[in-house]
Write a structure and sequence with these properties.
6-stranded parallel beta sheet, alpha/beta, 5 helices, Rossmann fold
């Protein structure tokens, strides 16, 4: 099972990247072939402009992956602009793939913000989502580390279920 984790935040102190890193570690410990893509290291260009080489490479990696995990921050109760650029430019070959969502937000009041991403993936590409979403808030982090025992337990549970369901869908 080849899993690609896409961290879409451009923030230097991205909490969603921390979530992506933790899930990646959990998957690797369980023998899953997993890799993180960090949007901070890609020159993102809008859909109508010439696509960068890094974005072309990302499109190929997304195409080759069996499933995806998308890390996002919340911006105006929706997905961020960098994730929208990645979806528009690089998700050409994702129809029917299994995916999960990792989300970092400032407060607990934005928990429905991930539904926009769910709608895009399920309606546009008929992707299949893991029903469990990781949602962390600023109180779960300190000094760029997860300090919440509950969040760590949810990361473990998410990872286990992502593997179990992902393998069943591949059979």
């Amino acid at each position: 099972m080849k899993t690609l984790i896409i961290s879409s935040s451009l923030s230097p102190d991205s909490r969603s990247f921390i979530l992506c890193s933790e899930v990646n570690s959990e998957l690797l410990e369980r023998g899953v072939e997993s890799k993180i893509i960090d949007a901070r290291k890609i020159k993102l260009t809008a859909y109508h402009y010439k696509e960068s080489l890094k974005m072309k490479d990302l499109s190929k990696e997304i195409s080759k992956a069996d499933n995806l995990i998308i890390g996002m921050g919340v911006h105006c109760y929706s997905i961020n602009d960098s994730l929208k650029i990645i979806l528009d430019n690089c998700f050409n070959d994702v129809t029917g793939k299994f995916f999960g969502i990792l989300c970092a937000a400032g407060s607990e009041k934005s928990y429905l913000s991930t539904m926009h991403l769910t709608q895009i993936c399920m309606n546009e590409w008929r992707m299949i989502q893991l029903p469990r979403i990781i949602y962390g808030t600023s109180k779960d982090f300190k000094n760029n580390k997860i300090i919440s025992k509950d969040l760590n337990e949810r990361i473990i549970q998410f990872s286990e279920e992502f593997i179990t369901i992902g393998k069943k869908l591949m059979n």
